[in-house]
Amino acid sequence: MRSKQSLLLIIMMILLNHHYMFAQESAQNQKNDNKAVNNPCPETPTVTYEGQVYNTVKIGDQCWLKENLNVGEMIMNTEEMEDNGVIEKYCYDNDADSCAKYGGLYQWDEMMQYSNQPATQGICPPDWHIPTHEDWVILEGEVDNHYDRWDEIWDGTSINRGYDVGYNLKTTDGWNPYAYGADSVGFSGMPAGNRNLLGNFNSIGNYAIWWVSETSVDKEGKDSEKPNNDESALYRSLSHQLHQVIMQTASNKNAFSVRCVRNY
Ligand SMILES: [Ca+2]
């Protein structure tokens, strides 16, 4: 009886050890990244711009603002933004407190300051620019736990991207219940919602939506000196229903959040 128990114990130990080794191996088969977690960019931990201080976050080789831009003069949702030499912003529900918490919402042309040049400074601080599709691809590959930067999955134009990149970019609170993220790298994406082309505010708590400085994936860099004659532009979004990142186009009269990335 005693030896039977010993034998059982030895078998269990072997099984446990095997399980442990298997777990180790799986972990190694995952991306072998050395992610810096929630560190400010060493050269520029903060950026002061138009009277407001923004934190920065280093993610891989990129340096991002940790907060959405909140620059410009607030206009009402019933007004359209104009090429008038003044940066204008919408605040959710026309409430300045929303801008303080979530940043402003901007129509695409206003954000670009009426340029059609990908990676233009637009309304970003000097030495920073409006992210391009490629900037997002780099971020997505860095942050996703399953697909790395060079995975061909990022070349695709499918709407839902990656495995858990969206989950890793979302804040750990502020999202509608049970939709919180992990905020794994300090990007701290908040569900700021939007002002749609009819002028209505919606989706706060459910969606984070950022414009990209291109009108579509295919048109990168083309016609860049001309004004944007397209009526739509590219965006990236995080959803309360998904762990992925959404890539889509929308009417450039929608107003979305703006996150800046530092020039390389
Ligand atoms: Ca303006």
What's a concise summary of this model?
By secondary structure, the chain is α+β, with helices and mostly antiparallel strands. Helices cover 21% and strands 20% of the residues. It is globular, with a radius of gyration of 22 Å.
Report on the structure:
The chain is an alpha+beta fold. It folds into 2 domains: 1-30; 46-262, no CATH class. It is built from 5 helices and 15 strands. The chain has helices spanning 2-29, 96-102, 108-111, 133-143, 165-169; strands at 46-49, 52-59, 62-65, 73-74, 88-89, 106-107, 128-129, 160-161, 194-195, 201-202, 207-211, 232-239, 245-251, 255-256, 261-262. A 4-stranded antiparallel β-sheet has the order 8-13-12-11. Strands 1-2-3 form a 3-stranded antiparallel β-sheet. A two-stranded parallel sheet has the order 4-5. The radius of gyration is 22 Å and the shape is globular. Residues 14-29 and 220-227 have low confidence and may be disordered. Bound molecules: calcium ion. Calcium ion binds next to loops. Calcium ion (CA) is lined by residues 81-82, 84, 86-88, 110.
What's the gyration radius in Å?
A: 22 Å
> How are strands sequenced across the largest beta sheet?
8-13-12-11
Quickly count the domains.
2
Tell me the major beta sheet.
4 strands, antiparallel
SSE arrangement, N to C: HEEEEEHEHEHEHEEEEEEE
Describe the structure using short key phrases:
15 strands, three-stranded antiparallel beta sheet, 264 residues, 2 domains, binds calcium ion, globular
Topology:
Blueprint: H1 2-29, E1 46-49, E2 52-59, E3 62-65, E4 73-74, E5 88-89, H2 96-102, E6 106-107, H3 108-111, E7 128-129, H4 133-143, E8 160-161, H5 165-169, E9 194-195, E10 201-202, E11 207-211, E12 232-239, E13 245-251, E14 255-256, E15 261-262
Parallel strand pairs: 4-5
Antiparallel strand pairs: 1-2, 2-3, 6-14, 7-15, 8-13, 9-10, 11-12, 12-13
